[in-house]
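The material for today's practical consists of a large collection of protein records. Read left to right, the backbone structure tokens trace the chain's path through space. An example says more than a description, so a record of this kind follows:
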Amino acid sequence: MKKLGLIAFLLSTLSLQGQDQQAYFISFTAKENLWQLQQPTTFLSDRAIARRERQGITLGPTDIPVSNIRRETVENIVTYAGHTSKWLNGIYVEAIPSELAQIQNLPFVAKVQPITGGTATHGFYGYAESQNDQINLEAVQQNLGYELDVIRGEGMLIAVLDAGFVGANSVNINDNLNILTTRNFVEGGTDVYQGSSHGFSVLSTMATFQPDFYVGTAPEASYALIKTEKELSETREEMFNWIAGAEFADSIGADIINSSLGYSTFDDPADDYTVNDLDGRTSIISLGALAAARTGMLVVTSAGNAGGSSWDKITFPADADSVLTVGSVNQYGMASAFSSRGYTVDGRVKPNICARGEGAYVFRPDGQLAWANGTSFSSPIMAGAAACLWQTQPNATAQQIIKALETSASHYYSHNMRIGYGIPNLGLAKRNLDVVVGGEVPRTLVYPNPFADYVELFLPDGEALDIELELYDLMDRKVAEGTLAGKRYQTLWSPGDHVPPGMYILYLRRGNEFQRLRVIKTI
């Protein structure tokens, strides 16, 4: 198989062939058969009743078995139903996402708790909750709910360059989905709803709006669907198709390009690139991506899925300067084994940042939800989030958006070739833009609070200034102090192991800024 360039497409296709089932606990609403408490011997032995009586324990709703109607209704929906629990008032099931959607609509279901991978319940974002929370999208979107004034990409135009969008015109992922235009640079014309469904799965991570089931990162943005990729071949012409698609995106006024495509080797080995070409200036598609960035568009591209292969590195145009290259992490924030590695041969940090690309939830062309693996999905998740971030400061430049995301990321001062600058924090990125673009007074953010061993500091203006810190107890006794020299964007401070748990007052001075903060030290 030569098509390393389309490996993002291939991996996602394999991941979408079947729906994986997970284990869940289905929690029911209050029991309706309380009359059974008057006949306890129908569900408890005399010995069990006597044990309660000896200890003064009265019978209650937790002693009543789950009703057969509730149990049988669930059993008729899910792939597998296990035992019910009268104490916990629910049932163990193994189900696929489409079955869970039916379960959640039952009037006697209170909540659904995944057993594998934690017990967090799905909120407003539904199945996209984990992948959106990982980048702190809520901090930008603000008032979650059904209000009209929240930040969800309204006014932004995202051009999606991909291999085809089968399903985008037949599966309703958003009642108000705005497909502004379509263009096919492979077969010609405007029909992009044929060939591959990869582009639709990519689109779904951004554009879906089904509250409490699945909400993408930018459901109120407008979209241009642009086909540039041939599904069954890998030729250099496809890179020119990409450039034509990017020029079209520029001509219609797109703010953002998402490209979940990458190239390195081709059907004709004579056309292959080498790893030494990853300088951002050799590949024709990288030059095209750089040209697109120079127009003021934010170009977001997948890093590639060549990690661990003979190629291993990022694919083209992920090496281009001034574009946002996105790698993949799993639910625990660890770099995915398949995610292509940096750096560029001239030493630039690539990928720039990472988002969920391993076990990401996407829609299939048959309307079902499924897990998928690939930087194909971390890229659009980030592109949609960037649209929301940009919406908060529309006068920002594309390069300021990239810088804000980088400086907010988890590994800014410990970047590496696997994860780049790390996982961005949209809340911190917004704070940076509010200061740099919006003109707000810089205020250092101190977190977490309460803290255990150290506090982190986010410096939104990026100036390299000394930071003076003093920690006092509530008796006004200084217990720790320190000076951090010439810090910018991010840093951390540990007051020392000798500080016992409790409440303290932290005094912070940085340039003309002075803050007095109440903080709590935990064990």
User: Anything to note?
Assistant: Residues 1-19, 143-148 have pLDDT under 50 and may be disordered.
